[in-house]
């Protein structure tokens, strides 16, 4: 196994040199310049312990908005006043919940204090976005990610009550469609997102598509 170690230069090795699991490089930092450069080239960060690991898996798990599957259960929720949906209303609360809410089968979270600060900076500069779901005045679900051009790079979501994150994702996909977004990067496979229409595509195709869409 050969692993590329990053220095201060804002540069990554070619993604085809990644390990079979998608691991490409280690190190560097979470500066805005490096993060945006990574996303534009099909790479994303993931912490393990104290180290920043950079990934570009093949195949890539994505959702084309026009292929989104709206379940009957969520369709009923959309017709009822069960939840209230907002966008970019409380990014800091969303990423904090994504960081702290425990998930089945996971011992911890990749969202460190450094990650929280880095993505909050991206939000302040208009690159990171959040979607929130409320019950009365309580935040019960949401998601956040990075928007560049016509691509939304999803990062994390959370849910405190049944269907809250699914509701947030559904409403946000509908908004992204209105804004002309053509690709949603889901990064790695989950059956949860597959049930909503996400699917695998070859990394080479993913890279080709985002290079066109992020510049628009």
DSSP helical segment count = 7
Residue stretches low in confidence (pLDDT < 50, at least 5 long) are: none
The spatial strand order of the largest sheet comes to 6-7-8-9-10-5-11
CATH class term of the largest domain: Alpha Beta
Helix and strand content put the structural class at alpha+beta
Q: Which fold name corresponds to the CATH topology of the largest domain?
A: Aminopeptidase
Helical fraction = 25-40%
Largest sheet: 7 strands, mixed
Write the layout of secondary structure elements.
Blueprint: E1 4-6, E2 23-27, H1 32-40, E3 44-48, E4 51-55, E5 60-63, H2 72-78, E6 84-87, H3 91-100, H4 113-124, E7 128-135, E8 138-148, E9 151-159, H5 164-178, E10 183-187, H6 191-194, E11 199-201, H7 203-213
Parallel strand pairs: 1-2, 9-10
Antiparallel strand pairs: 2-4, 3-4, 5-10, 5-11, 6-7, 7-8, 8-9
Helix pairs in contact: 3-4
């Amino acid at each position: 196994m050969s692993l590329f170690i990053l220095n201060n230069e804002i540069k990554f090795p070619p993604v085809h040199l990644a390990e079979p699991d998608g691991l490409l490089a280690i190190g560097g930092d979470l500066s805005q310049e490096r993060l945006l450069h990574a996303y534009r080239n099909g790479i994303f960060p993931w912490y393990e312990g104290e180290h920043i690991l950079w990934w570009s898996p093949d195949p890539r798990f994505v959702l084309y908005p026009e292929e989104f599957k709206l379940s009957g259960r969520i369709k009923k929720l959309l017709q009822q006043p069960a939840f209230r949906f907002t966008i970019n209303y409380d990014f800091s609360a969303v990423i904090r919940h994504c960081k702290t809410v425990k998930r089945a089968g996971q011992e911890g979270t990749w969202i460190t204090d450094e990650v929280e600060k880095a993505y909050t900076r991206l939000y302040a500069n208009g690159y990171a976005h959040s979607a929130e779901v409320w019950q009365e005045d309580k935040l019960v679900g949401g998601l956040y990610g990075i928007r560049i051009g016509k691509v939304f790079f999803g990062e994390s979501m959370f849910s405190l009550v049944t269907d809250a994150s699914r509701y947030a994702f559904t409403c946000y996909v509908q908004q992204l469609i209105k804004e002309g977004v053509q690709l949603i990067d889901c990064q790695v496979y989950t059956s949860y997102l597959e049930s909503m229409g996400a699917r695998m595509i070859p990394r080479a195709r993913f890279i080709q598509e985002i290079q066109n869409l992020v510049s628009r």
